[in-house]
UniProtKB/TrEMBL annotation:
Organism annotation: Coffea arabica (Arabian coffee)
Residues holding S-adenosyl-L-methionine: 9, 89, 92, 117-118, 168, 226, 251
Catalysed transformations (reactions): 2-[(3S)-amino-3-carboxypropyl]-L-histidyl-[translation elongation factor 2] + 4 S-adenosyl-L-methionine = diphthine methyl ester-[translation elongation factor 2] + 4 S-adenosyl-L-homocysteine + 3 H(+)
Gene Ontology molecular functions: diphthine methyl ester synthase activity
Official protein name in the record: diphthine methyl ester synthase
Tetrapyrrole methylase domain sequence ranges: 1-241
Keywords assigned by UniProt, alphabetized: Methyltransferase, S-adenosyl-L-methionine, Transferase
Protein function: S-adenosyl-L-methionine-dependent methyltransferase that catalyzes four methylations of the modified target histidine residue in translation elongation factor 2 (EF-2), to form an intermediate called diphthine methyl ester. The four successive methylation reactions represent the second step of diphthamide biosynthesis.
Amino acid sequence: MLYIIGLGLGDEKDITLRGLEAVQKSQKVFIEAYTSLLSFGISSDGLSTLEKLYGKSITVADREMVEEKADDILLEATSSDVAFLVVGDPFGATTHTDLVVRAKKLGVDVKVVHNASVMNAIGVCGLQLYRYGETVSLPFFTDTWRPDSFYEKIQRNRKLGLHTLCLLDIRVKEPSLESLCRGKKQYEPPRFMAVSVAIEQLLEVEQMRGENAYTEDTTCVGFARLGSEDQLVVAGSMKQLLEVDFGPPLHCLVIVGDTHPVEEEMLDFYKLAKKQGQA
């Protein structure tokens, strides 16, 4: 049996009881470590904290293991119970859907244990979840690569009056271009996109495209460490949010569409001006 278990967003305690039972009866436990991170994942003792609570040794599955050596994980699941831990909900990333498909083709039984993910936790700001359009991913720009395919999606959402969730780039154990050219992988330091970087890139693309999909005055909501005790939610214009220090990762951003009065009332609690007045 292959158990794919959502861990939620906060820390090791956010696992469900059903998920914990599955972990404890599994012979092998893996944790996926590149599509997202729990709040403790950035600390040096994060993994040991997890192992102590769950009572199991845990193998970190990086991108290479999941995408290139998934069959090794699935082979173990043909003869024993294997738990594959995923931050958030198991189907928050297409990689995990692919894992299920491959497991079923090999005749491996799969059980999924769901949990909270960024896709529903953003509801904390008061914007109604059914009023969101297509989610977009914002990658880090480089000197030679500045993609803008997300622009049309944001533009389409805003024409329909819908909110847009922007998932910000996470680069963990990414081989450097120089090392790939040399044929020997060397990895870049981990990088996590901040709200300010996302807004700078969004405004750069708007300036280049000039189609008024959004402006520096467009209302947005910035989030940091969703689901954690120290989560931060701040609403304001793009220009205002550029000046906010959201602190450690992980961050995400919502570009606000048309709002209902109830949404406005809730969003008002997170407005930057109000926060500054309370300080």
